[in-house]
Amino acid sequence: MRSPRTVAAFAAITLAGVGLLAGCASSGGGDSADGKVHITVASLIPGSDKAAFKAFDDRVKEFEKANPNIVLKTEEYQWTGPTFATQLAGGTLPDVFNVPFTDSQSLLQAGQLADITPEVKALSYAGKFNENVLAVAKDGDKIYGIPYGPYAMGLSYNRELFAKAGLDPDKPPTTWDEVREDAKIISQKVPGVAGYMQMTQGNTGGWELVTTTYARGGRVETTSGGKTKVTTNNPETKEALQFLHDVRWEDNAAGTNFLLDWSGINQAFGAGQIAMYPSGSDVLTSLVQQNDVDPKNYGLTTLPLTDNADAGALVGGNVAAVSPKSTAAQKAAAVKWIDFYYMQKLLDEKQAIADAKVLAKSNQPVGVPTLPVFDKATYDQTLSWIKPEVNIPLENVAPFTDKIFDTNLVPEPNKNTQELYGALDSVVQAVLTDKNADVDALLTKVDADIQKLVDSSK
Questions:
Q1: Is 164 in a helix, a strand, or coil?
Q2: Distance from the Cα of residue 399 to its chain's centroid
Q3: Are residues 100 and 112 in the same domain?
Q4: Per residue in 346-383, pLDDT tens?
Q5: Are residues 40 and 120 in the same domain?
Q6: pTM of the model
Q7: Same domain, 135 and 243
Q8: Residue-wise over 307-332: b if at least 16 C-beta within 10 A, else e?
Q9: Cα separation, 55 vs 342, whole angstroms
Q10: Are 196 and 172 in contact (CB under 8 A)?
């Protein structure tokens, strides 16, 4: 990752949702007695519905038909910060794996990602990548992965709950004051519902706190002269925590469950227990696959940004990569799969339509907003190809897609990111469970603890 700055990007359409998947150490296979190359690839998050797995398996069959000398074995996988290192060390992850933008640089520096520069440069579209996006998987001129599914953080909301509370679901809140006001109204008029909530554990609490800090113009790390300073104890982070405190303690609009990770908050949202929460713009795919959310009841808008000139939306995404233990034949096969599954649906009309049709036939969402891997011209072309297959109400996500073109987009902090997020989890939890939590002391400790890690990693 790089130091925070604006990333030039536009809203785009995702054609498939695989969730946050990962893997690094090869699980075996390769050249075998049958003369074919065998590789293991990550499929979907455990718990995804049968229709989603069928859609994925159909694409695997298409790939194997087009590449008869390659055999794919699929494995369910969900990346989480606390468990990834253990699974990596245990050598139980697929040959083709995916990691968040935040971890790609640290993993490639540690030799955990294969150098696939020749394979990527041989692709006909190698020069079309948005360099701001590809940079997360590069070290100098070498390429260690292919980014896919970049997203911007937005505000997901339950349109049905808005209507039940007498609010207009076509007019979501545009300021943090309006978010708080709507949350309070919903919690008062729809008993048992948290009008607004954020994630709090598994490193997601810190991730969302950073998200809401960025929306107010703050930064949790600054870099000058090659030196990074951890700066979570800043006015904007404290403002974000004060907002959460007020929603919880003054408005009683945050519910009663204060230990929510990514899966937990999605489950609660899908069950109609939470009306609003910050989320990646692509989360609807998972909400449909795992939580039976009806896209008709789902709304997405941009996060409210303050007047601070540095206010912006946090961006992230995934990197598809290859195990460094792979043979040359496996690396070539792996990049073929990455190209087929992740890239061709963005570049080739036939593949784009085929992928969208498979998803639509399996009742998977087509039309979920993400950000472009390539340029706007490519985005526009892709969108025109799959428009007949789009099966979500685009007007429900228009409050996001109409504005994201003009939004300042900011990368995640680039030093000891997951450790930073994990340390901030406890701060978020403290604010939600202790009315008089000493935020200054908590953030000062986070700064000191993470600064030691940053300094020792040089």
A1: helix
A2: 19
A3: yes
A4: 999 999 999 899 889 888 899 999 888 888 788 889 98
A5: yes
A6: 0.79
A7: no
A8: eeebbbbbbbbbbbbbbbbbbebbbb
A9: 14
A10: no
Secondary structure letter of residue 194 according to DSSP: B
The C-alpha atoms of residue 332 and residue 118 are separated, in whole angstroms, by: 9
* Pairwise CA distance, residues 335 & 329, whole Å: 10
Determine if residue 440 is left, alpha or beta; phi over 0 gives left, psi from -120 to 50 gives alpha, anything else beta: alpha
Tell me which of 386, 402, 418 is where a domain ends.
402
How far apart, in whole angstroms, are the C-alpha atoms of residue 86 and residue 63? 31
> Could you tell me if 8 and 42 are in contact, meaning their C-beta atoms sit under 8 angstroms apart?
no
Same domain, 272 and 357: no
Residue with tokens 């789902």: 298
> Which residue reads 């993400």 in tokens?
370
- Regarding whether 169 and 131 lie in a shared domain, the answer is no
- Which residue is it, tokens 């909301």? 157
43 token code pair:
């499929």
157-187 pLDDT, tens digit each: 999 999 999 999 999 999 999 999 999 999 9
What CATH code is carried by the domain that includes residue 139? Answer: 3.40.190.10
Q: Judge if 303 and 339 occupy the same domain.
A: no
Q: Which residues pair with 153 in a beta bridge?
A: 280
N-terminal to C-terminal alpha carbon distance within the chain: 15
> Which DSSP symbol is given to 355?
H
Token pair for 444: 């000062």
The DSSP call for residue 343 is I
Residue ranges of E strands in 110-181: 138-139, 142-143, 146-158
- Give the range of the structural domain holding residue 112, as residue numbers without chain letter: 12-151+316-402
